[in-house]
UniProtKB/TrEMBL annotation, chain A:
Domain Nitrite/sulphite reductase 4Fe-4S: 119-273, 413-549
UniProt-listed Enzyme Commission number(s): 1.8.7.1
Nitrite/Sulfite reductase ferredoxin-like domain location: 53-111, 348-400
Annotated keywords: 4Fe-4S, Heme, Iron, Iron-sulfur, Metal-binding, Oxidoreductase
Protein name: Nitrite/sulfite reductase
Recorded GO MF terms: 4 iron, 4 sulfur cluster binding; heme binding; metal ion binding; sulfite reductase (ferredoxin) activity
UniProtKB/TrEMBL annotation, chain B:
InterPro entries for this protein: UCP030820 (IPR008318)
Record protein name field: DUF934 domain-containing protein
Organism: Microbulbifer pacificus
Pfam family, one: DUF934
Amino acid sequence: MYQYDEQDHKLIRERVAQFRGQTERYLAGELSEEQFLPLRLQNGLYIQRLAPMLRIAVPYGLLNSTQVRRLAHITRKYDKGYAHFTTRQNVQLNWPNLEDVPDILAELAEVEMHAVQTSGNCIRNTTTDQFAGVARDELVDPRPYCELIRQWSTFHPEFAFLPRKFKIAVCGAAEDRAAIRAHDIGVQIVQNRQGETGFQVFVGGGLGRTPIIGVAIRDFLPEVHLLSYLEAIVRVYNQLGRRDNKFKARIKILVKALGAEEFARRVEAEWEQIKDGADELPPEAIEWSKRFFPQPAYKSVNGGHAEAVLRDQAGSDKAFSRWLERNTFPHRIPGYQAVTLSTKPTGIPPGDVTDRQLEAIAYLADEFSFGEVRVTHEQNVVLADVEQERLYELWQAARKHGFATPNIGTLTDMICCPGGDYCSLANAKSIPVAEAIQRKFDDLDYLYDLGDLHLNISGCMNACGHHHIGHIGILGVDKKGEEFYQIQLGGSANEKASLGTVLGPSFSRDQMPDTIGKILDVFVENRQPEELFIDTYNRIGLQPFKERVYAKAS
Amino acid sequence: MPKPAKKPVGAQPENPARLIVDGAVVANQWNLLSLDEEAEISAASLAPGKVILPLSVWLELRNELQARRGEIGVWLDSDETADLIGDYAGELPLIAAHFPLFTDGRAFTAGRLLRSRYGFTGELRAVGSFMRDQLTYLKRCGFNAFAYQGEQGLEGLLDSLQDFTDSYQSAVDQPLPIYRRRSLAG
Ligand code: HEM
Ligand code: SF4
């Protein structure tokens, strides 16, 4: 994990002081609402339906147990005792007082945390694979690059007032678990024929009201050029991106307007001028960043034995075996496994955790996973380095704290935005829809039989809940002041990313669970053995689903 | 670079009596001519003294004004990119960059490129609606002069130039990103 040195501490302290001054000026009437807006957004502070909302940065989703404990303390002292993990791998508080925010930021700074650039028209928190460093399908650990991108983008003087928000994600594995094609820039780590590390660079992805899958503008960028290339992209965007219409201001619109080829040509021309400059990443800089992500002190374990013990335990305990099946992930080190703590038992808003649960997470991390925690973009929490021998013990502890719902990757592990319960932009509530679907599909055997299935819900077209890239996406819409829900099918977020297609007219909230049931029936009836929902959908298309869902009752 | 689609609405830059230059409050010596006056401007009609011309006017009159080179500056609107001045930047004593809205961040790039790519060493002046809270960013992009509009106690703003005393990435004021300073030092 990256560790602050004196310079990081100083920068963050200076930021807290700056924001304290800004808040005081605002409260004293010296800064207008309009002037304060971008300043507070760049410090993570929204003004929402019920209260301000504070978004705390978790760089590439990585936390240590001390930080998690501090979050618990902050939710208790300044909020209502819970926090929310987001699809951006950040943490949100829903009820802080505006006046307290400088103090919250000061408390965060003490544990090397902040809320810098978690919102506003600037480069946001860089995100990555929650299994970075441990996944077997990983080519290169993305975290050292993420950290270098974090440093490059933090307080970037040229890019603090871009036309619109700007999100970068990095993936170092064969399977894209970071949804890089749904980001303004997606960086895929690759190797060329000579075995050199480099990057495939995607631009212009994004969700919101104009969802677009990013396109590759470069297939191999040598690693020495990562930052200069990013700088070239953002510089072209800062100069040419539209500023007259906020809905057309994202880089995806510029890429589309110019055409990917022309956009790439301009980026290359800009990059030619800076590629050999100060932003080069010499090998020693990369080595330096890698030092912050050392391999933890793994025990040398007889992998065969550990697996056998595990099989025995699973064999004699069905519940454990279910959890093992769904909530753990293979590890590249023999004798270890990664564990996902589910924040999605039925009836809890996805991603919500209480202060006590945060403390439990910190404890579990210390006890089982070298004190380290990761936030996933599916709003869960990962303990990446758990000894197989201790999985049973961890499972029992996780159960006690409500984290062992064995539903990871299934229908009920849904991504869901705060929706109308908290968000002033919402067209409809989303949390009650999630809950109603969870209640209807509570039979684990059925869920497992359906296999991996991503259901994503957003309360409006801003798409915070990633509905476009869910296999099943649900979008809250407003019809003459009433809440309705549109269904989309066929989205996906991985290396074969695609956008969902609208099924047809929308449904009332009451109709939603049954309608999802009909969609699942069509899937089950049409699937080939072991086929996943998305594959069946791609094979049979929208029509059979449409016919069933909109069939007139006879 | 071609012109971006459209520029957002915002006021034309004005001529405040005082401004901040190189960390001190000084009297404004320059008269910025706004685009509203563009139609009437010609080399002959230009009043004596230090003037800042809109880019389009300056591009047209540049040759005729060679004799007055030391007292002719130019200002860029936010949809005008630095490459439109290009290497001429080296000849100019002053370039101003306009913020029609403080949220329009294009002039940050213009400033940085004028300094680091086009060899501009004169006064780089922010004009328009930028904020105090942007001073350190502006400074890092090479701006050394800040012409605020409206009533402001300029002396009270000077502190904001020091909001950040260090930085992560390279910019005009800091040639090396922090990873180079750290990894190569240690
Ligand atoms: C409750 C306060 C929130 C507000 C006011 C808000 C606002 C917005 C807006 C306006 C957009 C559209 C931006 C655009 O397309 O340019 C957006 C997109 C997004 N937001 Fe939120 N959001 C909120 C909460 C969240 C939460 C809790 C999450 C995560 C769970 C989230 C994650 C996202 C994501 C992933 C996108 C899509 C980004 C893209 O277009 O690529 N937001 N949000
Ligand atoms: S998708 Fe809409 S309703 Fe949901 S959090 Fe985003 S802005 Fe709010």
